[in-house]
């Protein structure tokens, strides 16, 4: 599932690069993916986020820096469910993550 984060009113004389850190609980089965939450959650399933270069976004670690342009910037990502084991049990797939933007 593609999604994006828009950064508005960027002044590249102040900061020309940005990195996004997605905070959340890492999956026990794959530390580079986010754990599903809540009762009735699918088992051995996690949420993987990748950036526009298809690089994994690891929970709690900054993504690759992206060069900004003056004004509005759109940072594109993709979220997908992955299996973390051969045996998967159906259930809900809810994840909460907060993100932090670091400018440099």
From TrEMBL:
Pfam name, any one: Fimbrial
One GO term describing the cellular component: pilus
Subcellular location as annotated: Fimbrium
Keyword Transmembrane listed: no
InterPro entries (UniProt xref): Adhesion_dom_fimbrial, Adhesion_dom_fimbrial_sf, Adhesion_dom_sf, Bact_Fimbrial_Adh_Pro
Family named by the database record: Belongs to the fimbrial protein family.
Record's protein name: Fimbrial protein
């Amino acid at each position: 599932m593609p999604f994006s984060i828009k950064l508005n009113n960027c002044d590249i004389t102040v900061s020309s690069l940005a990195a996004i850190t997605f905070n959340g609980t890492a999956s026990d089965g794959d530390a580079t993916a986010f754990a599903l939450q809540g009762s009735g959650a699918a088992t051995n399933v996690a949420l993987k986020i990748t950036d526009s270069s298809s690089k994994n976004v690891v929970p709690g670690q900054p993504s690759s820096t992206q060069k900004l342009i003056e004004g509005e910037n759109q940072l594109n990502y993709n979220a997908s469910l992955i299996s973390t084991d051969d045996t998967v049990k159906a259930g809900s797939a809810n994840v909460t993550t907060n993100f932090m933007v670091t400018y440099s």
